[in-house]
Every structure is written in C-alpha cells, then in structure tokens.
C-alpha cells in the first residue's frame, strides 16, 4: 500500500473516531473562553470593603450555614475556598456548585449564585462523564487529533513537494 493511500486512510478513520470527543472539547472550550462575560456560567467577583482577611475558618462556615438556599451545612459540603485579597472577598464554593461570596473582613454576604464553570470544565476534560473517560477516551482522542493534524499537513504539502520535484527534474533535463 502506498504511503499516501495509508496516510489518507489514517486521516479519515482518526477523524471519524475522534469526532464526538473533539466536538465536546471544542464546544465546551468555546463556552469556557467567555465564562467571565456571562454571569450564568461564572458569577462575577464582587468587591469587599477591605483587603484585609479578618475572618477565620469557623466564622466563614458559620456564615454560609445560615444561608438555607446554598445548603452548605459542614466542611464536607464545601469544595474550596477562594480568597481574593485584592478584592477583599472570600468565595466559598460548594460541592453542589453553589458559590457564596463574603466580605473578607466583615463576613457580609456579597453574592450568592450557581457556578456552572466547574461543571463545564468537567465536560471539557471528560471527567464529568466518568473518571476514566479523561484518561481512556479524551487523551487518546487528543493524540489521534494530533495525528490528524500531522497527516492533514502531509496531505496539504505533498502536492507542492511533487510539483517542486517535477520542476527541478524538468530544469535539469532529466524528464523529457
């Protein structure tokens, strides 16, 4: 089998195999590119009154426990704390995708919202579907996509190389 025929077959089948994961990565990546422009995806970061962090962990937990709609009852319900000293805010992010923004000095609730960007990131890297999808589906798809790029580049450049070789052969008088 000629290299060019094999190259086309690899290119074609790799494109078919990777189509769905690549579409998922592209679509979710586009959404993530604009996440800060749409509060539906990621709530905007509010500003607190002071850049000083006065609250301790117990006070942070006590404040969020008093907010019934976020349903954060213990540290087990909390995914992470995001402290932004420059903005004077502490973001409490729950495992349920709820986000509470607190003034880092007073503990005043500045904003409560659903944070969907983490969910979209999980879709983007494949971990949303199943923990093994990230390694066993999305990684091989990325490697195949790199192969599609390489074979596509070859398919694109090959005619130019053939024309160049033919012109050089004509110029040297090797071809009649």
Task: Give the arrangement of secondary structure elements.
Blueprint: H1 3-33, H2 57-65, E1 78-84, E2 89-94, E3 98-103, E4 109-114, H3 117-125, H4 133-172
Antiparallel strand pairs: 1-2, 2-3, 3-4
Provide key terms for this protein.
4 helices; 2 domains; 4 strands; Nuclear Transport Factor 2, Chain: A; alpha+beta; 176 residues; four-stranded antiparallel beta sheet; single chain; elongated
Report on the structure:
With 176 residues, the chain is α+β, with helices and mostly antiparallel strands. It has two domains: 1-37 and 117-165, no CATH class; 43-115, Nuclear Transport Factor 2, Chain: A (Roll), CATH 3.10.450. Helix content is 51%, strand content 14%. The chain is built from four helices and four strands. The chain has helices at 3-33, 57-65, 117-125, 133-172, and strands at 78-84, 89-94, 98-103, 109-114. Strands 1-2-3-4 form a four-stranded antiparallel β-sheet, covered by helices on one side. A hairpin with a 3-residue loop joins strand 2 (89-94) and strand 3. The model has no long low-confidence stretch (mean pLDDT 92).
Number of helices: 4
Beta-strand content estimate? 5-15%
Shape: elongated
Mean pLDDT: 92
Describe the sheet with the most strands: 4 strands, antiparallel
* Count of DSSP strands: 4
- What is the CA–CA distance across the termini? 29 Å
Q: Low-confidence parts, pLDDT < 50 over ≥5 residues?
A: none
- Into which percent range does the helicity of residues fall? 40-55%
Task: Estimate nothing, just give the exact number of structural domains.
Answer: 2
